[in-house]
Amino acid sequence: MANHPLWQEEYWLPLMQLYLKKPVGVKAIYSRAMVELALELNIEPQFLYEQMFWLRRHSTPSLNLLWNKFTNHLKKLNADVEQLRLMRGFNHPDEFYRGVETKDTWQNDFKPLKNYYANLDESKNILMPLHLIIILDLYFHLTPITMVKETSEIQDLVKLTDIDAGVIVDVMDAFQQCDPYYNRITLEVSPLFESCHDIWQRYGNGDPKGLAALASQLKEYFRK
After folding, report:
1. Which of these three, 106, 139, 161, is where a domain ends?
2. Residues 124 and 212 in one domain
3. Rounded mean pLDDT for each run of 10 residues along the chain, 224 residues in total
4. How many domains does the chain have?
5. Between vectors from CA 110 to CA 49 and to CA 155, what angle results, nearest 5°?
6. Of 106, 124, 154, which residue sits at a domain end?
7. Quick one: CA dihedral 14, 17, 21, 23, positive or negative?
């Protein structure tokens, strides 16, 4: 069983609560509920996903006791989790984990971008880096002439993410400004350029299969 500097034994309770939510079982790494719990605990989704497998296997005597205690007493489990959330510091990692070295790259992927505001419906078109990662994967499957609103793959992404097609095209336009193979010359730098450049530096020059696999996992965040 893996160790994590921020993991506490009490966290088995919210993890079990999530596991027992219908459909019962191990949840996708980037399902919205898994990500929300990860942000709440300040522990990356990948680690929680691995812990959920240990939980499912009743891997230790203490986990077996948890199963015996709560499997048929979900109200008790929910009450205990609620009590845990009321503890001082829970869901306040800046205070609770002061002095503990952590990396917050993954958290930033689920935070709204501050340097872009859609001129459509802002409440609908809130972009996060996770959107940019998914769009970058699609970018590598299209050609510039097909990076338009009407393209079926873009429309599919609109339906999944509820982000307007025009915004997705804007993101692809910014990726074109990052793409050294496209060698695009423009007089106006996209307001999304900096954020898209960061994503390009992380994934644009790597293994496209790895990016595709990550994008596929991240899409689970939007599926209900």
Report:
1. 106
2. yes
3. 82 96 95 96 95 92 93 93 80 51 75 68 77 98 96 97 94 93 74 94 94 97 90
4. 2
5. 100
6. 106
7. positive
Say if residue 132 is in the same domain as residue 57.
no
Distance CA 222, CA 210 (A): 20
| Dist CA 165 CA 158 (whole Å) | 6
Euclidean distance between CA atoms 68 and 79, whole angstroms: 16
- DSSP per-residue string spanning 12-38: HHHHHHHHHSSSPSPPPTT-HHHHHHH
Task: Give first-to-last CA distance, the chain, whole Å.
Answer: 30
Q: And the tokens for 117?
A: 């505001």
For residue 54, the enclosing domain spans 9-106
Q: CA 201, CA 42: separation in Å to the nearest integer?
A: 25
Q: Please say whether the beta carbons of 130 and 110 come within 8 A.
A: yes
Query: Are residues 60 and 127 both part of a single domain?
Result: no
Distance CA 150, CA 71 (A): 49
CA atoms of 196 and 198, how far apart (whole Å): 5
The answer to the question of residue 193 being in a domain is yes
DSSP state letter for 57: T
Does any domain span residue 4?
Answer: no
Radius of gyration of the chain (CA): 20
Cut 0.70: pTM above it: yes
Give the pLDDT score at 96.
47
Residue 124: name the closest of 175, 165, 164 by CA: 164
